[in-house]
């Protein structure tokens, strides 16, 4: 699994990297809040281990922003303080579990495995991707904005799924073509723009808050 560790205590960060790597996880480390925020909100990790007190941006704020842009990656929050209000603050912003420093590595690994198992089960169950009031049911192959069912073609569905799996992250036309039109060598160069236009028409038309955004000169993203 791909795990992000956001921890400014370098020795602890190095220890976590080593221990988790030994469990065959792929580990990225960020040593401050801003770098951690950028990586955590990319939505590309299976788990984020997040220290509460960080330079730049604290763990609670990072977690809050992850959830705000629709990133559902499980978060294990670490804190040096055991105060009840900290736990409540952390869990309210969307952290999934909590560990008070100092902790035994066995305890951390047990929590990590539990969160990864829960996530795997969730993904197996098909589950839904969600950005604001837009949901994508991957089993029933159904898109909804609020209560309204949106009829999508297979390609439109694949494009929307790719955007939603990477919610908050800008995707270039090349990235989108590589993922959605992988084996279709005849795909036109403007195929992405055409399909984004179709999707906007179905997803965002007549809505006050459009979700699909153009980032000029770069590509597209979806976010609340
Ligand atoms: Ca810290």
Keyword list:
Rossmann fold, Arc Repressor Mutant, subunit A, single chain, 224 residues, alpha/beta
Task: Walk me through the structure.
The protein is α/β, with parallel strands linked by helices and 224 residues long. It has 2 domains: 121 residues, Response regulator (Rossmann fold, 3-Layer(aba) Sandwich); 95 residues, Winged helix-like DNA-binding domain superfamily/Winged helix DNA-binding domain (Arc Repressor Mutant, subunit A). Helix content is 42%, strand content 22%. The protein has 8 helices and 12 strands. The strands form 3 sheets. The chain has a 5-stranded parallel sheet, with helices on both faces. A 4-stranded antiparallel sheet has the order 6-7-8-9, with helices on one face. A hairpin with a 4-residue loop joins strand 7 and strand 8. Helix 6 crosses helix 8. The longest helix has 20 residues. 28% of the residues are buried. The structure holds calcium ion.
